[in-house]
Amino acid sequence: MPMISSRTSLYFAVFFPPRPLLSPGDSCSPLHMMAFARGLVSLRGSLLLRRDAARASARAPLRLRCVQIQVISTRWQHTAPASVKCNWNLREDFFELSYGDLVMHFDYVWLRDHCRSASCYNSKTNQRSLDTANVELAIRPTKTRVDEETLFLTWPDGHVTRYNLAWLAQNSYEGQKQSSVQPRILWNSDIYTKAAIPAAHWEKFMVCDEELKKFLSNFLLYGIAFVEGVPATLEATEEVSDRVSLIRETMYGRIWNFTSDFSRGDTAYTKLALDRHTDTSYFQEPCGIQVFHCLRHEGTGGRTLLVDGFHAADKVLQKSPSCFELLARVPIKHEYIENVEGHRNHMIGIGPVLNVYPWNNEVYMIRYNNYDRAVINTVPHDVVQHWYVAHRELTKELRTPENELWVKLKPGKVLFIDNWRVLHGRESFTGLRQLCGCYLTRDDVLNTARSLGLKA
Ligand SMILES: C[N+](C)(C)CCCC[C@H](N)C(=O)O
Ligand SMILES: O=C(O)CCC(=O)C(=O)O
Ligand SMILES: [Fe+2]
């Protein structure tokens, strides 16, 4: 029997009478494995753990009885879920689970808090009913048992929590650390052009969910997507936008339609070229998506520039991790001050240029607008110098000609831009140019995508 050295005790079933010995090649059930791990069954040679073997032994007439024993908390225990290699270990401060190639650690309060039993979690509303504030922070299970694919934890008050091991593996920190929240294809102009992504077609797009799904799938992967054949009207632009998400109204209105008349106090309302940038960087939460539809252009120039900001950020990460880190850590301000007839606005947005998930270093938002960047007064002078170096590195990547995708927007061709990822700009132009569009609520675009079965 193992030494009694742990506060943790566990229940498990053993064969009665227990088989004392297994030989190499013997089929081995999970129950055997647990008994082995606890020193009840000795073993010569290595064990081959197979699900079919477990099934075969489950069919055999067995008498089971439950016993409670103490275990050494640092020893690995084994179980056999669905032919995945799986070991577990009840440590003093956490539950350790090795599942496939992944070793995971689960805090005991976490394990109590995420209990999905009927009294702790309402599976109709998918909401927690457990009052987390009432959970003892130093809580430990009094009994633990793993039965093939389920972990059973009995808490001091007698409440039992069951976890499917695959669920734990999927929801572990270590699992999240290895995967990305949003799978993406980073691109330069060559990669995007060669991918030859087809545009969605307006009529099909408006009625067919598969067409919308394909469009959204491309949009999520590349951060841009087109719909063609759209009537060159404000109404149709609104309809095509409504199909994707909720329109986000801003001080520019719900659907805007602008020319170079300087009707608003911003360079966008001129004929001047605009360097690559993201819009509404001066919002606490910049608009998620921008929709452009050029309804008319009688003149020259005016092409649209698109640059994948995440591709550029990734290059900075590879070439200069310290620059990447600085851009992700230092908060700066962007500002929109408008003082023209009928329009008085003052917007301030604060946040780093690169917004990164801390657990996997994945960039989820870039805020880059040199026109609207405000006075830097949130950073001490010695950091400021480094910040400018880092900003220059990112700017170099963003301005690399290979990274620039130039498109001429024509009436009928609606462009959706992920404004958290892809920067846009424009060439200067002559003549009458009328551009309409709107911003979309990011949460609702992702919501639409998820409702169609996409990972978003
Ligand atoms: C799109 N629309 C013309 C309505 C607004 C343009 C906003 C321009 C602003 N400088 C920014 O980058 O956010
Ligand atoms: O005129 C254009 O093509 C785009 C101008 C712009 O950057 C904007 O409206 O956000
Ligand atoms: Fe813009």
Automatic annotation (TrEMBL):
Keyword set includes Transit peptide: yes
Enzyme Commission designation: 1.14.11.8
Alphabetical keyword list: Carnitine biosynthesis, Dioxygenase, Iron, Metal-binding, Mitochondrion, Oxidoreductase, Transit peptide
Pathway, per record: Amine and polyamine biosynthesis; carnitine biosynthesis
Molecular function, one GO term: trimethyllysine dioxygenase activity
GO BP annotations, alphabetical order: carnitine biosynthetic process
Localization per record: Mitochondrion matrix
Catalytic activity: N(6),N(6),N(6)-trimethyl-L-lysine + 2-oxoglutarate + O2 = (3S)-3-hydroxy-N(6),N(6),N(6)-trimethyl-L-lysine + succinate + CO2
InterPro entries: AlphaKG_dependent_hydroxylases, GBBH-like_N, GBBH-like_N_sf, TauD-like_sf, TauD/TfdA-like, Trimethyllysine_dOase
Residue ranges of domain TauD/TfdA-like in the record: 205-439
Enzyme class, spelled out: oxidoreductase
Location of the Gamma-butyrobetaine hydroxylase-like N-terminal domain: 95-168
Cofactor: Fe(2+); L-ascorbate
Matching SUPFAM superfamilies: Clavaminate synthase-like
Entry GO CC: mitochondrial matrix
Subunit structure: Homodimer.
Family of this protein: Belongs to the gamma-BBH/TMLD family.
Function description: Converts trimethyllysine (TML) into hydroxytrimethyllysine (HTML).
UniProt-recorded name of the protein: Trimethyllysine dioxygenase, mitochondrial
Biological source species: Paramormyrops kingsleyae
